[in-house]
Amino acid sequence: SLISFCFSHPACSPVLQAARGYARPAAKKKEIPSHLDDLPPTMLKKEYANLPIMNSVDDVVKRVLSLEMASQKEKLRVKKQQLVEKVRRSPTDNGSFEVQGKLKKGKVAILTARIRTLEEHLQKHPKDKSNRRLLLMGLDRRRKMLSYLRRVNYSTFEKTCQELDIQYSPPQPYTRRVTKRWLVKKALCIKVFQEKQKLKAAVRLRQRRERQARARAAREQQE
Fold it and tell me: TM spans, by residue (predicted)?
């Protein structure tokens, strides 16, 4: 009969039927929110935003030149500019520490945008060691700049962290595990340093006596 034929067929065996019963659909990956989501899609790109001709162009052209069809790199450029504007003291301020940083490429606002982009990338690709290294380097550079700003001007440091939504944590003090080998090495280094200081003291004493002898001889000649 037809039923017996179906059960005798390899594709309809009881093992395969049980396996189909345990099969589950693949779970969809959860979308990770991005810090670029708050950018309005109708905003024009940075290089086209201030052109007067944009007021008279067609809507299709505006869509092509807006962030709706922009790449992530172009959106990140706009986001960096927004963060810089938040911490800028005045519209003409391009050299303040919280905008430019002590290093040429170490801008706090731009570093913050890069760090958040790398964090989102590593949430999707946690095995990307190259970008993880770039993330750690960026965090360390930003922590150093914020630490300097915290010592120099605390009010500006507090405002910068508040505007950029940064949770600053001071670096932990360095601790080293004390081992027997490290203690022996430290004792040897201290002994070498002390011997070197003794040699330097003997040389300085000899030089001082020579100067005193020359000065005594010069006084005797004048008399």
Answer: none
Cα–Cα distance measured from residue 113 to residue 119, given in angstroms and rounded to the nearest whole number: 10
Q: What is the dihedral of CA 215, 218, 220, 223, to 10 degrees?
A: -130
Task: Name residue 51's beta-bridge partners.
Answer: none
Cβ–Cβ < 8 Å for 153, 161: no
Sequence-separated (6 or more) residues with CB below 8 Å from residue 170: 147
d(CA 80, CA 110) in angstroms, rounded, equals 5
Question: pTM here?
Answer: 0.56
User: Bridge partners of 44?
Assistant: 66
The dihedral through the CA atoms of 21, 23, 24, 25 has a sign that is negative
Which DSSP string do the residues of 179-213 spell out, in sequence order?
A: -HHHHHHHHHHHHHHHHHHHHHHHHHHHHHHHHHH
- Say how many Å lie between the first and final Cα of the chain, rounded: 141
Q: What are the per-10-residue average pLDDT scores of the chain (223 residues)?
A: 45 54 55 71 73 75 75 79 73 54 57 88 89 91 87 85 85 80 92 94 93 91 84
How far CA 36 is from CA of 33, 117, 148, 195, 206, in Å, comes to 9, 9, 29, 62, 71
Q: Give the number of residues written for the chain.
A: 223
Contacts of 161 (CB under 8 A, 6+ apart): 146, 167, 168
Residue 66 β-bridge partners: 44
